[in-house]
Amino acid sequence: MGGNVFSNTEAIQASDGFADYTLEGRDGMVVDGVIQTLDWEGNVISETENTISITAETYWQSVGGRNSSVGEAFKYDASNIRVREAILGYTKSLNSCIIRNINVSLVARNLFFIMNRAKILDPNLMPGNSNYQGVESFGLPGTRSIGMSLKAAF
Questions:
Q1: Is 100 domain-assigned?
Q2: Residues 38-79: tens digit of each pLDDT
Q3: How far is CA 65 from CA 11, 19, 118, 137, 138, in A?
Q4: In a 10 Å sphere around its CB, with 0-12 CB exposed, 13-18 middle and 19+ buried, how is residue 152 labelled?
Q5: How many domains, the chain?
Q6: Distances, alpha carbon 107 to alpha carbons 82, 113, 148, in Å
Q7: Residue 98 belongs to some domain of the structure
Q8: What is the spatial distance between Cα 30 and Cα 73, in angstroms, rounded to a whole number?
Q9: Within a domain: residue 55?
Q10: Would 56 be classed as within a structural domain?
Q11: Distance in angstroms (rounded) separating the CA atoms of residues 111 and 144
Q12: Host domain of residue 49
């Protein structure tokens, strides 16, 4: 629970116009916000509501992109609850002098999310062991595996 992840994949797709939400505003849109007038020392003299219309292309290329994307637009909560592994098995005791018992199990890994606040990505698939942790960039999807296990105790 907790933490944040950043989707570089989504930032690039938004900048290039491949994300479905970039369709809105293609004919023009006004971004919520204010326009500040500053004096030569950088102090705010006045603030007025933004009324300047821009295209969705201009907006998403400013917010997204490959090298200078804005983190807030593509930041997600990394909290998730998942069924990471489930094992269903049966053990049969034997009256043999060689084999004491046999266990047969069905093993399933990475089954599903009970809750995933990041929605579009798997927060546990963020590789990295440097300062670049928590950033997803065109990662491969996680794999689900189902198999059997056979064990014998001698």
A1: no
A2: 888 888 888 889 888 888 888 888 888 777 767 688 888 888
A3: 5, 12, 20, 12, 13
A4: exposed
A5: 1
A6: 16, 17, 6
A7: no
A8: 17
A9: yes
A10: yes
A11: 6
A12: 4-82+114-143
